[in-house]
Each structure stands twice: as C-alpha cells, then as structure tokens.
Specification:
alpha+beta; Alpha-Beta Plaits; 2 domains; five-stranded antiparallel beta sheet; two-stranded antiparallel sheet; elongated
Amino acid sequence: MIADFIWSDSIGIIITTNQVTSASDINIMENYIEESTNVNTNEVSVPCLPQFKSYLKILGIPYLTNNGTSIACNQIEEVIKRIHLFNNITLVLSPCIIKASSKSDMAVIWIDIWDSQNGAKAKNPINRCFNIGKYIATIRGTNMNPSVP
C-alpha cells in the first residue's frame, strides 16, 4: 500500500501517500474506508485525486426567458447536464450569470469546473457551440477573474 499515514476525525479522513496516487489506488482506499468499522461511510465523500479548477464562459444565451424573467442558475445547470460537451464535467459552484451589458439582452455565464492539472476536461468544450432553442451558445476558455462574483 502506498499510504504512509491514515487519520480519521470529525472533519474527515486524511490519507498521506508516499507516491503519486493512481485510480486503482483510489479504489483500494475506497474499499478500505467502506470496510472500516469506525467510519460512517455516509459522511465521507468519495476519494479522489487532487483536482484543479478550469474556468469557462458561455456566450450567446439570452438573459431573459420567454416569460420575461432573468435566467436562473438551476436552468443553466440543467442545460449543462444535458449537453454532451459537458459529459464527465463537475461544476465547482453554481454558474454565475451576468448581463453582457446594460443595453444587451444576452448573458455571459461563468462556470468553474473541476479539472486535471493540464486542463484536459476543459479542452473538449472550449470553442465549441451548442443550440438552446433558436440561439447558438459558444463556450470559451477564460482565466480566473477575482472581480467577477
């Protein structure tokens, strides 16, 4: 086993490894946690490798819906779940929806996704388009912008 140190407390489980962990090592750790008698597995999130964030924005979606209300985060999340470009992509937070400008009827949707260090998950959807009704939305890569809420 590659684990040097295993610690369990009320916050969670910490496992320190002595080499880079692979997916099969993660499975071993997950099985260990499931078989452990002193750990409530319902309170433990699934083990995973360290992840990085990638930042994307979606352009070309109207800010207002057909009934005149502004588009909601849960509507965007549903679209993301259904679009094949976002397969195997997990959002870090709910999308941030901002009106493109005060006179525009379009929105800019900022999404943060969990990714690998080399940004492999973000590479597939970047510069790709998809349809939402009569609108064509485009996915762009972006840098983290601390001034954006």
